[in-house]
Amino acid sequence: MKPAPFTYHRPETRGEVDALLAELGSEAKILAGGQSLIPILNMRLSSPAHLIDLNHLHDETAGPALDDGHVTVGPLVRQSSVERSELVTERVPLLAETMDFVAHPAIRNRGTVVGSIAHADPAAELPAVLAVLRGEVVARSATGRRTIPAGECFRGPLENSLEDTEWLEEVRWPVAAADQGFAFEEFARRSGDYALCGVAARAERAGDTTTVALGYLGMGDVPVCTELPPLGASAFETDEVEDAVARVVEGQLDPVDDIHATVAFRTHLARRLGATAVRRAAAKADTAGQDS
Amino acid sequence: MTTRMFGQSVKRNEDPRLLTGKGRYVDDIEHSAAQVAFVRSEPAHARIIDIDVSGTLDIDGVLGIYTYEDLEGDFAKPLPLLIPNDGLFAPKTQYALAHEEVCYAGEVIAMVVAKDRYIAEDAASAIRVEYETLPVVADLEEAARPGAPVAHLDMEDNVSGRVSEAKGDVDAAMAAASHVYQWRFSMERAAAMPMEGRGIVAHYDESDQSLLLYDSTQAPTGVRGGLALLFGLDPDRVHVVAPDIGGGFGMKVIQFYPEEVLVPWASRLLGIPVKWTEDRREDFIGSNHERGQAHEVRVGTDDEGRILGMETNFLNDAGAYCSYGLIIPIITAAQMQGPYRIENFRYEFRNLFTNKVPTSPYRGAGRPHAVYVMERVIDKIALELELDVAEVRRRNFIGPNEFPYDVGVTFQDGGPTIYDSGEYERGLDVLLDALDYGNARAEQRKAAEQGRLMGIGIGYYVEGTGIGPYEGAAIKVLADGSVTVALGFSSQGQGHETVFAQIVSDELGVAVDKVKVTSGDTRRIGYGVGTFASRSAVVGGNAVFKAAVQIRKQAAEVAARSLEVAAEDLVFENGQIRVAGAPDLSVGLGQVALISNPLRYAFGEESQEAVLLAQRAYAQSDRPLPDGMRPGLETAEFYSPTSGVFAFGAHAVVIEIDPDTCNLKILRYVVMHDCGAVINPMIVEGQILGGVAQGIGGAFYERLAYDDQGQLQNASFMDFLIPYATEIPTVELHHTETKSPLNPLGIKGVGEAGTIPGPAVIANAVSDALGRPIDSMPISPLDIYAILYKG
Questions:
Q1: pLDDT of residue B1
Q2: Is residue A175 in a domain?
Q3: Which single residue of B377, B388, B544, B746 has CA 20 to 30 Å from B158?
Q4: pLDDT above 90 for B150
Q5: Residue A290 DSSP SS3
Q6: Structure confidence by residue, pLDDT tens digits, B543-578
């Protein structure tokens, strides 16, 4: 388990990264935390000719920051620093709740949030959470930068929508509004494993009506985001929640069989976890509404 | 009187080294050695048409590429069959490098030696092997089907061996039984997955005609003997060192894996040290597996649930080769009756080749399968007859006065299976009291009323441990009063440096940390067998004890002469040999070692005094080294047991199944175990806890997912699910102590115990919770989903 030969680059500024990518394009891979990339290289599942190591960039922020209604994270912000961030706990509670499910502490100490988004693993938690929160990412290249909404960020399994000369310099997480409630649910065989199915819920309360959006992971080629029809107060006293989730699960998710779970089992999990997430998020939206 | 160290939870001598990163594993040795990578078969069954190495020609740093054609003489023959058996009629072992036909995905086809592992892997990935693929037989039961594809081209079917045995009259017992049941049980294969994989560093010295091999093996003396023969070297010129080893669990007891022959062979050929460190993927597809069995059981009972007769007809998955013979199914057959009196018993097994990684013992070694079958049988009898599962066990136990108890079948060492001692009903009482069984059942009923899925499972086992043929210990007292103990069998981290030091400490009156135990280095002791079958404490411990007694005798003789007293008046304590009743009259144990080796010259203060003492001793004798005495305070003694000794234990688990996730939650896990006299309770507890984790892993998490083409689909720790600490519940441990009458220390083995009943208790608990029989293991949430929601 040793990687095939590659040329190693160690830029010190974002501009140098842009220049390297402008020159190398698809020949190059960006290395940040390395928690997904290094195993892939060692198992020779991928053999890029060039590796651009971001870890020696100067003057990068180590933690999340507040910027214009968003909590932002830069390319070297480790997952553990997001996990421990009070700013995140207060302003993006769904992200805070989810961090515990992202692999293990040792992996979170090295792994970056931006890297996890860029890796675009449909089974990972952070892309689904970004999608359900309607966050955005900032891509840059030698020719400029652009902001991409989360919904347009993921193209397929391990495939993001960046050009070969672009890289991600920031992920932007919208600050939670007072009338919102959130929940994250997943089932993994072992604590910290990739989930067989997971779901993030964002609920918004307006009068007696609750609107809930769900973001599923592990249930398609990309994170699957969907909104349930508005739910009245009575929905939570009956099976209406379960029925609404079931319709979404049947109609919009596209899970596959693997050695750990069949389509049928994943569908079952999506219904059960989805309903639990809806109820929990809606209950929190209730509380949040009363507080304000 | 000083405290007896035997029986104390002494902190481990090896831990300061191992826990501070100072352990020395094979990969820590010879960093400058040339490195090896292997080309392994991709198809599970194929003819090799061509091996094209032309892609490697422009890779700098490649030192050699070898295929079967390069092997000569004995190296070109199949690797040795380790344990022959009359019932093993197709004893196929693999070639060091595949010869024309490959029979499992992972079989070694070519070896690359290069300056470093990166280059070696570059070259290995540039070698193109052309195959003619052949029909694959992957599934065990499919392999037994007439007309199934054959795993080996030159065979007509897949049966490598067949053994049957009977005691009593099973047919008559069945005819007389009120109830006769027929059930099928299966268990998939599993893998040991030690933290450290295998590793080898070979240094062949042409001018010295010697070979030094560092090998992450459980059996260094066996490797040494085999290599000496293969290389045509004087055995004294071959040294095998098993340094610190990061787990073995049986997987490292095979001699030889192909790499163990090829790496030293390459070192001889190239005249340089050569090293290979197994990576995790290689471990999955190149190191042996175990478990896979399928049983058809018939059992006859009376109306009270007493078993009158039982028979099992079972298949054992050998994998592609069977260098370890029939040991696994033999152990299964010998241990199936467990703690129960079954007067009429019959078994027949067939050992079947499949196109998968070969199998050999993995912690538990045939017993988890046996216990799972037997304990499911007990629970199913209870269900059929509407009896309590604990009560059915109670009605079938062998009584405490029936020992020695002849089980009536052949044990793995070829002798009869005879239990030495046991208190099975007392053990069950301890378990049920600890569980508060009546209350647990009441809670379960309450949960059921609320629609919750709670289940209770019990698994009882008897484990044959401590088999021969022998082990030895070489003990030497040094001038500073410390004691070295050399053992021929290796340690995989289980505490050898402590428990054997405790035995020596008691006998010689030296502190435990003054006893330095080294194991697995054939330069220090050339004779030994190996660490497996829960035998080290039993066989090695009693050898250490014998050697310590001998040292004490020698030391007492010398001290008696020096102090001019009778040997029987001497007391050994705190590193001193004192005269009872005369506290000022003493001599240090280290000084006795010096006196034992009478010197003309003094080196250092201690020896100056010793030279004087030796002169004084000489005055008592006609010569400095009296006739019949040897210089130095050292000895090597060996212990050979008359037969195995039989530990026992029982586990109980309370679980709840979550209908949303189909996961099971272990609410309680209670263990009762008995391994005779305990040397170090803390270490025994550690063995049990680790075993329980492996047992739970094997029952609910770990599954080698082979497809029907013999491809392992989950050869990584991402998809082969070894439970983390987060998945393992708090284990409640309870002990009883039924000493073995068969060895001086009263010890029975404990190394494998914790693992053995894992599948049985989980299967019984899930069956209990779901009201549906779980008769194929392991299970997973996916299986539970199918039972709950797919009917």
A1: 47
A2: no
A3: B377
A4: yes
A5: helix
A6: 999 999 999 999 999 999 888 899 999 999 999 999
Q: What is the dihedral of CA A213, A218, A220, A224, to 10 degrees?
A: 10
Three-point CA angle A216, A221, A226, nearest 5°: 35
Provide the phi-psi class of B746: left if phi over 0, else alpha when psi is between -120 and 50, else beta: left
The 3 state secondary structure assigned to B6-38 is: CCCCCCCCCHHHHHCCCCCCHHHCCCCCEEEEE
Cβ pair B307, B342 in contact under 8 A: yes
Give dist(CA B776, CA A241) in Å, integer: 37
Question: How many domains, chain A?
Answer: 3
- Asked whether residue A207 falls in the same domain as residue A280, the answer is yes
CA distances from A129 to A92, A96, A193, B453, B567 (A): 10, 10, 17, 33, 80
Q: What is the pLDDT at residue B727?
A: 96
Antiparallel, parallel or unpaired: β B471-477 and A70-73: unpaired
CB contact under 8 A, B719 and A259: yes
CATH code at A31?
Answer: 3.30.43.10
Name the average pLDDT for chain B.
95
> Bridge-partner residues for A96, per DSSP?
none
The answer as to CATH 3.40.50.170 being correct for domain B32-134+193-286 is no
Q: Could you tell me the residue ranges of all domains in chain B?
A: 32-134+193-286, 289-467+642-789, 468-639
> Could you tell me if A272 lies within 8 Å of chain B, comparing CB atoms?
yes
Residue B321 has pLDDT above 70, yes or no: yes
Boundary (domain end) residue, out of A170, A196, A221? A170
Do the chains contact at A261 and B782, CB–CB below 8 Å?
Answer: yes
Q: Is B717 part of the contact surface with chain A (CB cutoff 8 Å)?
A: no
Tell me, what's the pLDDT at A292?
A: 45
> What's the average model confidence in pLDDT over B332-351?
98
What does the pLDDT look like over A32-72, one tens digit per residue?
A: 999 999 999 999 999 999 999 999 999 999 999 999 999 99
Which one of B118, B122, B721 has the shortest CB-CB distance to A189? B721
Domain region containing A16: 7-53
**Interface pTM (ipTM) of the complex?**
0.95
**Vertex A237 angle, CA A235 and A240, to 5°:** 35
Which residues from chain A sit within 8 angstroms of residue B661, using beta carbons?
187, 269, 272-273
Q: Which CATH topology does B289-467+642-789 take?
A: Aldehyde Oxidoreductase; domain 4 (3.30.365)
Cα separation, B775 vs B773, in Å, equals 6
Question: Cα(B226)–Cα(B229) distance, rounded to whole angstroms?
Answer: 5
CA distance B165 to B409: 7
> How confident is the model at residue A290, as a pLDDT?
58
Say whether residue B7 is in contact with chain A using an 8 A CB cutoff.
no
A273/B125 CB distance under 8 A: no
Domain B32-134+193-286 and domain B289-467+642-789 have a common topology:
yes
Q: Is B232 exposed, middle or buried (0-12, 13-18, 19+ CB in 10 A)?
A: exposed
Cα separation values, B104 from B44, B108, B645, Å: 4, 9, 37
B18 burial via Cβ count (<10 Å: 0-12, 13-18, 19+): middle
State whether A28 and A117 are in the same domain. Answer: no
Question: CA angle A284-A272-A127, nearest 5°?
Answer: 70
Structural contact between residues A44 and A88, judged by C-beta atoms closer than 8 angstroms = no
Taking the C-alpha atoms of residue A32 and residue A51, their distance in angstroms, rounded to an integer, is 10
